[in-house]
Design a protein that fits this description.
Length: 541
């Protein structure tokens, strides 16, 4: 029995781990790296054609996005996932393939003019459709015998519709070991879906640590906050534009707006229109409805039992075709426009920004995390103008954020999840977090809670029968493409540049941590202040 770590080690995206047991090769997730890539990942240690099973935690692309590539390279095994994850992956992987093909077409136009070799997409829509046929939909809380010696069970972990932690029992001869893979652990009190449910026993735990260095602020009254933004924008005669992730965040916004309309919280504009302009979001909303019996929380199910669809209301308009999307900007009435992508990097949202950012009466409301370098982040940080479709657009609109909306558990939520295990697992492997976060969270588990914890690097391999480390993971930074000037820099100079960049990142995380603790309990602020003062004194001395 072996466990090998491949992706999302000291990084947040690209979740992928490998288990070899009972003569079978298994992947836990097969995710795509997104955004900034910090470290090199080791390859899957067997050919794709030799992978027998994939156990998939949820449908987000950083957990599922390389499944079509796995198929392209020869995989013909089975993918075990919950029913809702199966349904979401069918549409999300196709959407990802469309993006791959579109990017290839765009790059090939440039390559042809430059006389360069053609660019091949990572995978195609045909491959995304084909891999969908290998999914095995599973119920929550039902133990499933995968093959002789291997059983699994999915538990709702409250991160996304269909998201799960996965219990895996492995038996070879007289030895049985249980591995629990957390997937992404959800935040408490999210609309529509359940709070995370907990697991009691494990020999080994692989757990995420995305927000392992911070605490969420107490959530605001989302309905009241959103109603306020709608009211103020409509009173000015503008549009409220919401960049939102198509799966999860869009449905939450619809859930809130239905309640706003029901309670008549927006005055003098009671019949306002809400456009959902994202084919993926429209399809995902259908999946939510189809999986309501298994995935909706108590409050959402109370509405369903009354014959109310929590995600529908009068005035909701869906834009499917490009013509539908274009027509929105000819509607002169104040309205809400929900469109993807959530970070404004691609998709139809960019057209709505072009038509609304310059308008003083409009509002752009961000309801999700904006990664460094994205258009969304640039707007949030106060850019006075941005480039869209070759034009310079002035940012005159009101730019707002709906604070506190997060699908991930914070540090306390992660601790609550791991501390439900009794007895303590033999070892906890901390993954799926930024470099410093994974290390700090693992150390916190050791120092404060007496766990045997480690934050492995890609390539680390363990013998599950004995717990022994077989292969040390290697920390290999990704080498960015060098300019001629950078190539001339000495090795020591390159090291200095790398360390400077890491110090900048550490500083950004520290500032973020300080800001997140402001306004919290006095005890917590005093504790953090003392830690920072002690650290500063140590450096000064």
């Amino acid at each position: 029995m072996k466990l090998m770590f491949l992706g999302a080690t000291h990084e947040v995206t690209g979740s992928c781990h490998y288990i070899e047991a009972c003569g079978k090769s298994i992947l836990l997730d097969c995710g795509m790296e997104q955004g900034h890539d910090t470290y090199e990942n080791q390859e899957i240690p067997v050919p794709a054609s030799d992978v027998d099973y994939v156990f998939l935690s949820h449908a987000h692309i950083d957990h599922s996005g390389l499944l079509p590539l796995l198929y392209k390279n020869g995989f013909r095994g089975e993918i075990y996932a919950t029913e809702a994850t199966t349904d979401l992956c069918r549409i999300m992987l196709l959407d990802s393939a469309h993006i791959q093909e579109f990017e290839a077409q765009w790059r090939n136009r440039k390559a042809k003019r430059a006389g360069k070799a053609p660019f091949e997409p990572l995978y195609t829509t045909e491959e995304a459709s084909a891999v969908a046929g290998h999914f095995v939909p599973c119920d929550y809380e039902k133990e499933i015998s995968v093959t002789n010696g291997i059983s699994i069970r999915f538990t709702d972990v409250g991160h996304l519709l269909g998201s799960s932690s996965i219990e895996i029992w492995l038996t070879e001869g007289q030895t049985t070991k249980k591995v629990v893979f957390s997937g992404d652990i959800g935040n408490l009190n999210q609309p529509i879906i359940h709070d995370p449910r907990y697991t009691k026993e494990a020999d080994y735990v692989i757990m995420e640590s995305t927000y392992g260095d911070r605490l969420h602020n107490p959530p605001p009254d989302y309905v009241a906050e959103l109603a306020k933004h709608i009211q103020e924008t409509f009173d000015r005669g503008g549009n409220l534009v919401i960049p939102a992730f198509a799966v999860g965040r869009t449905q939450e916004m619809l859930y809130f707006i239905r309640e706003i309309k029901e309670r008549k919280l927006v005055k003098n504009h009671e019949n306002f229109k809400v456009y959902v302009d994202s084919p993926l979001a429209i399809e995902a909303t259908k999946v939510f409805k189809e999986n309501r019996m298994d995935c909706y929380d108590t409050k959402a199910m109370e509405l369903v039992k009354k014959g109310i669809n929590p995600l529908e209301f009068n005035g909701l308009i869906t834009a499917v075709t490009p013509e539908d999307s274009q027509a929105i900007n000819f509607d002169r009435d104040p309205k809400v426009i929900i469109s993807a992508s959530g970070m404004c990097e691609a998709g139809r949202i960019r057209h709505h920004l072009k038509h609304n950012l310059w308008r003083k009466e409009s509002t752009v409301l961000f309801v999700g995390y904006q990664a460094i370098g994205t258009l969304g982040r640039i707007i949030v940080e106060g850019a006075e103008e941005v480039r869209l479709f070759g034009e310079t657009i002035s940012v005159n609109a009101h730019v707002e954020q709906l604070a506190g909306v997060s699908g991930h558990a914070d540090k306390n939520g992660l601790l609550r999840w791991i501390n439900n295990f009794d007895p303590k697992p033999t070892k906890v492997f901390v993954v799926h977090g930024d470099d410093l976060v994974t290390q700090a969270f693992a150390q916190n588990l050791i120092d404060e809670y007496e766990y045997q914890a480690v934050a492995p690097f890609s390539g680390a391999c363990y013998d599950l029968a004995s717990g022994a480390l077989l292969t040390e993971g290697v920390k290999i930074p990704v080498k960015p493409k060098e300019t001629p000037q950078q190539k001339a820099v000495s090795t020591g100079g390159k090291r200095a540049i790398y360390l400077s960049e890491q110090l900048d990142l550490a500083g950004q995380r520290l500032i973020r941590l300080i800001n997140q603790n402001k306004g919290g309990a006095n005890r917590d602020m005093e504790k953090l202040l003392k830690q920072l003062q002690d650290f500063s004194n140590k450096i000064d001395s």
